[in-house]
Amino acid sequence: MSPIVPPRGTQGADASPRADASSGTAPPDRAPAAHGAGARTDEGAAAGGPTATDVGRDPGTAPPGLRPAEALAALRAAEARDGAPDLSRRRDLLARLAAELKRRADDIAAAAAADFGARSRIETLLADVLLVADFALHARRKLRRWARPRRAGVPYPFWPARAVVECVPKGIVGIMAPWNYPVQLALAPAVDAIAAGNRIVVKPSEHAPRCAALIGEVLAAGLGPDMARCVVGDAAVAADFALQPWDHLVFTGGTQTGRRVAMAAAANLTPVTLELGGKCAALVLPGADLGQAAREILVGKALNAGQTCVAPDTVLLVGHDVAAFTAACRAAGIAVPETALLDDAQAARLDRLSAGALLVPLGPDGPGRRRAIALATAPDDSALMTEEVFGPILPLRPCADLAEAIAWIAARPPALAIYLFGADTAEEAAVAAGTRSGAIVHGRCVEHVGFSGLAFGGVGASGHGRTHGEEGFRALSNLRARVRHGRFSLARMFDPPRGAMAERITKRLLR
Question: Which sequence positions are flagged as catalytic?
Answer without folding.
Answer: 275, 309
